[in-house]
Amino acid sequence: MSSNSFAYSEQSGGGEATELGQEATSTISPSGAFGLFSSDLKKNEDLKQMLESNKDSAKLDAMKRIVGMIAKGKNASELFPAVVKNVASKNIEIKKLVYVYLVRYAEEQQDLALLSISTFQRALKDSNQLIRASALRVLSSIRVPIIVPIMMLAIKEASADLSPYVRKNAAHAIQKLYSLDPEQKEMLIEVIEKLLKDKSTLVAGSVVMAFEEVCPDRIDLIHKNYRKLCNLLVDVEEWGQVVIIHMLTRYARTQFLSPWKEEDGLEDDEKNFYDSDDEQKEKTDKTKKSYTMDPDHRLLIRNTKPLLQSRNAAVVMAVAQLYWHISPKSEVGIISKSLVRLLRSNREVQYIVLQNIATMSIQRKGMFEPYLKSFYVRSTDPTMIKTLKLEILTNLANEANISTLLREFQTYVKSQDKEFAAATIQAIGRCATNISEVTDTCLNGLVCLLSNRDEIVVAESVVVIKKLLQMQPAQHGEIIKHMAKLLDSITIPVARASILWLIGENCERVPKIAPDVLRKMAKGFTSEDDLVKLQILNLGAKLYLTNSKQTKLLTQYILNLGKYDQNYDIRDRTRFIRQLIVPNEKSGALSKYAKKIFLAQKPAPLLESPFKDRDHFQLGTLSHTLNTKAAGYLELSNWPEVAPDPSVRNVEVIELAKEWTPAGKAKKENPAQKFYSESEEEEDSSDSSSDSDSDSGSASGEQDEQGGSSEDSSEDSSSEPQSDSESASEVGDKRAAKRNSKSKWKRDSEDGENENEKSRTSDSSSADSSSVEESSSDSESESESESESESRKVTKEKEKKTKQDINPLTKDVSLLDLDDFNPVSTPVALPTPAFSPSLIADLEGLNLSTTSSVISVSTPVFVPVKTHVLLHRMSGKGLAAHYFFPRQPCIFGDKMVSIQVTLNNTTDRKIENIHIGGKKLPIGMQMHVFNPIESLEPEGSITVSVGIDFCDSTQTASFQLCTKDDCFNVSIQPPVGELLLPVAMSEKDFKKEQGRP
Amino acid sequence: MIHSLFLINCSGDIFLEKHWKSVVSQSVCDYFFEAQEKAADVENVPPVISTPHHYLISIYRDKLFFVSVIQTEVPPLFVIEFLHRVADTFQDYFGECSEAAIKDNVVIVYELLEEMLDNGFPLATESNILKELIKPPTILRSVVNSITGSSNVGDTLPTGQLSNIPWRRAGVKYTNNEAYFDVVEEIDAIIDKSGSTVFAEIQGVIDACIKLSGMPDLSLSFMNPRLLDDVSFHPCIRFKRWESERVLSFIPPDGNFRLISYRVSSQNLVAIPVYVKHCISFKENSSCGRFDITIGPKQNMGKTIEGITVTVHMPKVVLNMNLTPTQGSYTFDPVTKVLTWDVGKITPQKLPSLKGLVNLQSGAPKPEENPSLNIQFKIQQLAISGLKVNRLDMYGEKYKPFKGVKYVTKAGKFQLGRFGR
User: Which UniProt keywords apply (chain B) (predicted)?
Assistant: First the structure.
């Protein structure tokens, strides 16, 4: 303030004049202005004058020009005194620009910066929250050690501010103060602890960020806030979500038991690629004891799932890495679709995502195999993207898809991008070594490439062929001869060196050619590349040892040339070889073994992915991308052997979390409804959902219809599911039909209920089901929209009422209700048939019930009696289970495959309460279980039927077969043939079906 | 997190720098220039570069490099996504994200960057909030400001910042209430020489332009929502409603925004609306080659295909091309060897074709491969996946908005021919 009046008295006249002069330039654009004055000191004088004028417009113009200078990276520090006087300006824009200036130069001009502090202290008490917040921001951004106590005080005050925005800024200030003065750590941790308790979504991300930077090891601070953070997550802004998810991933790895152990047995197909069998058995045996996932662990996995749909690539990646690192292996699959989606994004995002997929695809091919084609390379991709895609394609190669892939690779070899073509040849080499079936095909293909026009392609092929031949010491004389000829034409050193090495190694297989090659090489020795010279020396040495008659003189000639070579490596090698192979009086004991030394069996090089060693870094991190530990990288700890006390996370009043504690006994009712209600209880604005929410799509009202239709269609033996197009009257009919079979079903559904009870906490997605029907009924949407408009408490009451209303109704008409849920809501990653009926219905609005009537299931002509082992008696502690496919329409639902399971008791005591426990089904798959068997006598056997909807895929259905004391992980993978339903159809109908779009 | 940001133009000038923590010298960019030189092509500059003391994470957008300096571990996508958001914001404010626009508005750029990051951590990135804090430049406003002395910086905290719906500003008022949705679908395809589809899928977005007063609560439903295989949402969409009912229910941001982007699974057959017959042959021992392309409609659902452009990256040995198009015009850039043929629209009576001779460098070996073609086209009033908006309902406000939906299908990454053959 005083400075203004000072300026007025002294500079008023002059100020006016400069102002007029500047007006013209500065109003057009500041850039025009700062272009004029480079580092001219006189111009800076102008700026000083303008800053000291009493007109805001002049000051503003000056500040704009100064900011322009800062932006350009020009030094404007000498203006500090003039600028700092304006910190208290009434004009908010001037003030903001002064802040910008201060933050930039305060560090350099600490003493002068102190002049501004009192202004900020005043602003911290302002009634406007924006001003309070920005004052705190600037105050904490001034890196002047003297004001540390003032900052500390300000942060403490701000952390108790009423405005969450100010508290958010306080959280940011914590990090700034910490980096300025790490001594303050203890005090800052107190503030962090306080802010972690904050319930505002605005604060959550920032305070976790502060936590990560100041005290990432104080995991104990998180306990009490864990559930809150999980529940707030969907509503936090995107950047905060990323930070919180990364932090919670680390948290989960320290606090929960590994969910992987139990899966190891289930995931045979996945794991066999990299785990040896016996190792696996060991693991499963050790951890046979039943594992139940901590409900808090489940909560995290459940609450992050919706974020896979975020528009922000960083959030999607964060969730993906969370699933990868902490979810049960069977659930990781859902992330692949989202990651593949990110590949449509810009090149930088693609680059990072592809790197992460590359790492994942080494360990779990199955995850990305359905998306193989998404990794096909386009000619317009940048090279770095191309090579990453190639890497992934190579990782995904297996017996089934290798022929497709090789055809694809063939086109890549022709690419104009030679770097990429060379990488492709390397990839072919890797496929050849990994998949023995195609080794010869690949080798032949590579040999064909030897006659390629492009030298780089030829050279790369030579190098790869060399590696392949090394792995297969079998006779490949022809190829070696062919390559020997290439020596005349090919100029690329690596390739020449490879050929020479190969001939040397196999000199006894090509006895005629080898000496001749050596002769030719000796001729041009001096003009060769160093790499080639070394190999010529090696070749000479090897021939000298095996065929000294023909090559003795040649070799000595070469050794003489090498002796005087310019390169000392070559001179060294020459000396070494001479001593070793040429017998003379001085040669020691070694020369006796010269042949053994030179012609020893060399281990074949291992062709493996460059991403192989990256998996010890947390995915999605900078360290993973760089493949080195970046500063500040926080290791993911290994799962604890024994779970730390879960009660530390208990907080007195948290409604949501209570739902998920295992002791939650208030759930005797219809589970589908309960899921539904839970999602209701969450804040209205939060669109959070998860496995259980998606299951809840089938509120009971709807199930009448579903049950009815599935029942009906299975009676009709129709293979066409009927869905959207069903009319109300039809449903009515079916309900009637349904009642008949009521008694038969009753027990099933009740058991299903119990089943659900037990399994929910460990896997909420495993609701029992028997039918894949896609429909949504009125009653469901009504109840939803009604309850949504109510407040939370009301919702609860209402729900109870609806429950009561619906329950009798359900009992009356539908007994399948508990087993049905709506699969629509879970997007299915599985390959669906091209003519999905629902799609046709969508497109044409046809009523399918008419079409389905012409299709009738015929009895199978042949039913194989072959049974498959579900559970061996050795691993089942005496309980053995076999299954076979009776090829009968499944009575549980028309999309299900019926399976007969025969259980045998091979022990000498009763086995009690045999039932199916937790199921780990891929998304969309459903299973109808058998009734628990109360007891099975020794040597007794019983056959039960089970229905599984495999979603027309051959994915494995994994579940637990439980007895009273034990749980065994078993899985069924259907052969393709068992998924089909024999259908009798007239030719006309067939054509009609075929002609459908 | 993010320490500093440098904006670098194509010729390697650092024309803007901003530091959120201590100043990092411009010389750190030398590592970036080094990598750039090594990469030869701007597209190939690695997004993450490690230097002795810092890590550089960069994006390339609209001929500009946004290079951020990082000192400690951070998810790289976090930075990349943020940098793109910065570029988007510039685009939004200045109409383009170019060096000239940024230099002209350097003060606003600085104010924006100041608001968007605090100590390297994103603070406000929603365009609706930023626009309340810092008004976008308009001619009218600059005139008014210079007369009245008022500034384009807001002095109160935007209400959105505190609410549960940070994307919408309060007190929106329009005389004409309108809500427009553009369903834009792009066909990504790789088609081999024989015309069979190697890979095809449909990527769609729904862009919305919402100018509605107050706090409207919209719900948009589709005739066939199950088509959408994989969807990503603007934060405003209630995920739960979508999961259970397949209805998009949301309180929209004000103005233009991307509501959802989706993918239609490749398992459903994708209709390919055009076919291209191309034959490019080089004679052995001759510096001449023949070139012949014809384009025709395939499964175009009875709509006209327009805005067709064909680009071909010719082999390096091609010197020049002498071609005659039956319609449209073509250019061949002898430096980049890119042939561009601007076709226009297809009339089925007379299919457009481009024929002629290719001159090769004399003495050079005949190029081995046929180049692959990239094609662009547009079909108005058609969503190729068959997606249809059923209805838009508005709750929470009394007035009757004007509603509109527009469908467009475009070629996305549409490639014909596979690295030749």
Answer: Cytoplasmic vesicle, Golgi apparatus, Membrane, Protein transport, Transport
Q: How far is A630 from chain B (nearest CA, A)?
A: 6
My answer on whether B191 and B300 are in the same domain is: no
Nearest alpha-carbon partner for A909 in A939, A881, A934, A933: A939
Look at residue B168 and tell me if it is in a domain. no
Phi and psi at residue A488, in whole multiples of 5°?
-70, -30
Which of A975-979, B205-209, B318-322 is predicted least confidently? A975-979
In tens, the pLDDT along A481-496 reads: 888 888 888 888 888 8
- Partners of A380 on chain B (C-beta within 8 Å) are 374, 413, 415
A600 Cβ contact list (under 8 Å, min separation 6): none
Q: What is the largest CA-CA distance in chain A?
A: 113
Between CA B53 and CA A632 the distance in angstroms is 12
Instruction: Specify whether B189 is located in the same domain as B113.
Output: no
Q: How far is A642 from chain B (nearest CA, A)?
A: 30
Are residues B304 and B239 part of one domain? no
| Dist. CA B30–CA B22, nearest whole Å | 19
Most confident among A112-116, A583-587, A871-875 (mean pLDDT): A112-116
Phi, psi of B373 (to 5 degrees): -105, 145
Indicate which CATH number applies to the domain containing B219.
Answer: 2.60.40.1170
Q: Which domain holds residue B390?
A: 178-270+384-416
- Mean pLDDT of the region A324-352: 89
Q: Is B30 on the interface with A (CB under 8 A)?
A: no
**CA dist., res. A295 & res. A762, Å (int):** 7
Q: Would you say residue A10 has pLDDT above 80?
A: no
* Same-domain status, B300 and B360: yes
Total domains, chain B: 3
- The answer to whether residues B109 and B18 belong to one domain is yes
For A336, the closest chain B residue by CA position comes to B230
Together in a domain, B109 and B236: no
The answer as to whether B72 is a domain residue is yes
Instruction: Answer whether A689 sits within 8 Å of B243, measured CB to CB.
Output: yes
Domain assignment of residue A604, given as a range: 473-608
Q: pLDDT at residue A685 above 80?
A: no
Q: Does A141 touch chain B (CB under 8 A)?
A: yes
> For chain B, give me the number of helices (H) and strands (E)?
8, 23
Put simply, whether B409 touches A (Cβ < 8 Å) is: no
Tokens linked to B34: 């080094």
Q: What is the mean pLDDT of residues A941-958?
A: 78
Q: How confident is the model at residue B83 (pLDDT cuts 50, 70, 90)?
A: very high
Contacts of B78 in chain A (CB under 8 A): 239, 242, 314
* DSSP alpha helix (H) spans, A835-927: 837-844, 848-852
Neighbouring residues of B383: CB distance < 8 A, sequence distance ≥ 6: B183, B185, B204, B407, B408, B409
| Number of C-beta neighbours around residue A42 at 10 A | 7
Answer yes or no: is B157 within a domain: no
B75/A620 touch (CB, cutoff 8 Å), yes or no: yes
Using the Cβ of A774 and the Cβ atoms of chain B, whether some distance falls under 8 Å is answered with yes
pLDDT at A745 exceeding the cut of 80: no
Top-confidence residue, B277 or A722: B277
A337 contacts in B (CB within 8 Å)? 229-230
Check residue A473 and give its pLDDT. Answer: 62
CA distance B263 to B265: 6
Residues 46-105 of B with CB under 8 A from A: 46-48, 50, 55, 58-61, 70-78, 80-82, 84, 103-105
Asked if the Cβ–Cβ distance from A73 to B263 is below 8 Å, we say: no
From B22, B227, B233, residue closest to A309, measured CB to CB: B233
Name the A residues in 237-256 with CB < 8 Å from any B CB.
Answer: 237-239, 242, 246
SS3 B189: strand
